[in-house]
Design goal:
Strands 28-26-23-18-15-14-30-29 form an eight-stranded parallel beta sheet. It has a seven-stranded antiparallel beta sheet with strand order 3-1-2-13-10-9-6. It folds into three domains: 203 residues, Sandwich (Immunoglobulin-like), CATH 2.60.40; 328 residues, TIM Barrel (Alpha-Beta Barrel), CATH 3.20.20.80; 86 residues, no CATH class. It is of the alpha+beta class. Strand 1 and strand 2 form a beta hairpin. Helix 12 runs parallel beside helix 13. About 5% of the residues have low confidence.
């Protein structure tokens, strides 16, 4: 069978095995905003010829007589593989581990996220087995991308459900991948350091667009706010406590009859007026939306008339066993069981009709979407999606074909139509996704995790792995979705959230507001929550820098801090540091080194420092790098260090107006450099909401602090420059040096 090779860039080559004479479109379609153009395409008789000049030891790529497909890569002794994703992983280094990414209901209630980059696993995924697919009830990502410490990368472009990737579990010398069918289509990357390979993967699958500034602040959520009155009482408490909040999230309680895409009139009257009341204080609104309905709902018959729903093998309407069709919300708003309908999101006219129901919500003042149940939940083998327009024209998609495509198709729909409908930037919280979801503004979370210390400890891994696989904006249900975290765990989770790209507190039938665990916990949370709001100008800047560079915002230590140039000596030095190759409990958040406390009852925290001088953000203490330090921790302590030559630009008054004003009217810069030294920061500002920055309506400035004086140099953009004054560091509103 001929082997096609297509050189897409100096470091990316597509290899495809097929009896046809041409390369088909990629399985996910629409690759890359930059639309990599083939530099050369050739056909070969042997895999070795197709791989000539590449370092990857790929030695088998074949299709069996039964239609199954198989891949095999030989692994070297001591070689590490970054990628992999499983809630059961016990650490970054998964040597000898068996990881089954079938995404079935986890015994703890935590989901599995699918792909060789499973958010629930460690960064070092060697010797794990991954069953790639999305079948959990709690969210999935399909990201079969692997980076090797030997300088090669591999992405498997096959969306078939329940494929298996074995990273050395059965044979420590072999990486193998098998699937029941689908394309034999892989992208080989090499040779490069990990940061370079990640950037190339993002170049292939697409860069995440810059999100609205407020989405990088603090998002308050719960299951759920039962009325607008409940929301207003909550926001009044934020004002009373002088705490920042940037977004509020409406769970399913807002929906009329669970599924009609209209506000429940009894509990959520006058949506335009009430959303305006929320927005007046600088707080933005996100609403949940789910990809289906049920018989008897007002949007069911119109959908049937448009053939907008999935069918069964006989062409009848597929009965989707979703909660909103079969049970409602136990103990809150139960319903009589009915037939569930699942949107055919792959058919463009059906998808557009579904989105059209959301347009009035935008007009009323909704700011962003939360896409839930988009694995989709309850997809059995008998489901059929006829008349497919995306990812390619075809008669039908069946159950095994759709699990790893449904979420990205839905994200594509909302990104495409939002762009037509508004001038706002795309941002969607999403329970599932695939490689490339980031280019549609998707920000996944790590699923319905338990309120346990075990669940807390795995959360940094999930975010770091996602970033390694091209998904830079992720977060968790802060406090845990299921159960009562208690005061200490909730405080520690809020502290972790403060240094996570998407900072969202959320729980099931439980309070997750900062005061929910009592006054002592609130005061322990306050410094980290305030610091997140203070740092928002810097976080927006770091996000802009990271997304442009195809890099994660929350970064494994082995990638180095944001600003470490891929391919540089520094990048190679970080990747080669044995201390960081298996490290998942400390990481870089932009340029900051974050070491959140993840152990119950901890009174000290050990931190491994890179070379250079590192300053404790809270106390101002300076530490020499290259070794480890042990710091004392109290309940309110979030260990956070910054390079001594790095300055931080902050919002001087982040709780003015309860939420945020953008751009902030008063900016300060903090520096820990000595009188004879300089510290620098880049600042990026725009209007924070619209896409006008794409036409140059932004301002990029270089801020230098030397001897207490501030120098500002414009680097780009046409947005008015901001005035910045030097100030003594006061993280969380605490005066410099008052904590030690």
């Amino acid at each position: 069978m001929p082997i096609h090779a297509q050189q897409l860039s100096a470091l990316i080559r597509r290899i495809h095995v097929d009896a046809t004479d041409r390369l088909p479109d990629p399985a996910i379609g629409d690759w890359g905003r930059e639309r990599l153009a083939a530099e050369a395409t050739s056909t070969h008789e042997t895999l070795a010829d197709a791989l000539e000049g590449l370092s990857i030891p790929l030695e088998l790529l074949e299709r069996g007589d039964d239609g199954s497909v198989r891949l095999q890569v030989r692994l070297a002794a001591g070689e590490r593989l970054w990628g992999g994703y499983d809630a059961d992983a016990e650490g970054f280094d998964r040597r000898g581990d068996h990881v089954h990414l079938t995404n079935e209901l986890h015994p703890r209630g935590q989901h599995h996220m699918a792909g060789a980059c499973d958010l629930c696993n460690s960064v070092d995924a060697e010797d794990a087995e991954l069953a790639i697919g999305t079948f959990s009830n709690y969210g999935e990502l399909h990201l079969p991308f692997v980076v090797s410490s030997d300088g090669w990368g591999l992405y498997i472009s096959n969306a078939r459900d329940r494929a298996v990737l074995d990273l050395g579990a059965r044979d420590e010398d072999l990486l193998t991948w098998t699937a029941s069918g689908g394309e034999l289509d892989v992208y080989v990357f090499g040779a490069g350091d990990p940061a370079t390979l990640v950037a190339e993967f993002v170049r292939l699958t697409g860069h995440q667009p810059l999100p609205p500034a407020w989405t990088l602040g603090f998002l308050q959520s719960r299951f759920g706010y039962e009325s607008f009155d409940h929301v207003h009482r909550t926001l009044d408490r934020f004002e009373q406590e002088q705490l920042p909040v940037h977004g509020l999230i409406f769970d399913v309680q807002w929906l009329e009859d669970h599924v009609n895409l209209r506000w429940d009139p009894a509990n959520f009257p006058d949506p335009a007026g009430n959303l305006a009341r929320i927005a007046k204080h600088g707080v933005r609104s996100i609403v949940i939306t789910e990809p289906g309905t049920r018989a008897g709902a007002s949007n069911h018959a119109p959908g049937v008339a448009r053939r907008a729903f999935a069918t069964d093998v006989n062409g009848s309407e597929y009965d989707s066993h979703q909660w909103y069709a079969k049970r409602g919300i136990e103990g809150y708003r139960e319903i009589e069981p009915s037939t569930g309908a699942l949107l055919n999101v792959f058919r463009e006219d059906a998808a557009d009709w579904w989105y059209d129901q959301h347009v009035p919500l935008l007009e009323q003042g909704v700011d962003a979407w939360w896409l839930d149940l988009n694995e989709p939940e309850d997809v059995r083998h008998d489901v059929r999606f006829p008349d497919v327009d995306w990812p390619a024209k075809r008669d039908v998609l069946v159950g095994d074909d759709v699990r790893n495509l449904f979420a990205i198709a839905q994200q594509r729909l909302f990104a495409r139509r939002d762009r037509q409908q508004t001038d706002r930037r795309p941002f969607v919280l999403s329970r599932s996704g695939s490689a490339g979801s980031q280019r549609y503004g998707a920000a996944p979370w790590t699923g319905d995790v338990g309120a346990t210390w075990t669940d807390l400890r795995v959360q940094p891994r999930l975010t770091l792995i996602a970033g390694m696989c091209g998904i830079p904006l992720t977060g968790s249900d802060v406090g845990g979705f299921n159960g009562d975290p208690g005061a200490e765990l909730f405080v520690r989770w809020m502290q972790l959230g403060a240094v996570t790209p998407v900072f969202r507190a959320h729980g099931y039938m439980a309070d997750r507001e900062p005061w929910s665990q009592g006054d002592d916990a609130l005061e322990a949370i306050r410094p980290s929550l305030m610091l997140r709001a203070q740092l928002l100008p810097s976080i927006v800047t770091w996000t802009w820098q990271a997304l442009r560079a195809g890099q994660p915002l929350a970064r494994p230590m082995m990638l180095g801090p944001l600003g470490t140039e891929p391919g540089s000596d520094d990048a190679r030095r970080y990747a080669a540091d044995a201390r960081f190759q298996d490290c998942d409990d400390q990481f870089f958040f932009g340029p900051l080194l974050a070491a959140p406390v993840l152990e119950e009852g901890a009174t000290t925290r050990r931190i491994e420092l890179p070379e250079g001088e590192w300053v404790d953000v809270w106390s101002g203490d300076v530490h020499a790098g290259g070794g480890s330090i042990e710091v004392d921790v109290q309940l309110d302590t979030l260990p956070l260090l910054v390079p001594r030559t790095t300055a931080l630009v902050v919002d001087a008054d982040p709780v003015a107006g309860r939420g945020y004003a953008w751009p902030p009217p008063e900016l300060e810069v903090w520096s820990w450099a000595g009188d004879d030294d300089a510290a620098t920061a880049t600042l990026y500002l725009d209007d924070g909401i619209t896409r006008m920055h794409e036409q140059g309506a932004y301002c990029q400035q270089l801020v230098t602090v030397r001897g207490g004086e501030v120098e500002v140099e414009r680097l780009g953009g046409a947005w008015p420059a901001s005035r910045i004054r030097a100030a003594a560091p006061s993280p969380g509103g605490i005066a410099a040096g008052s904590r030690s």
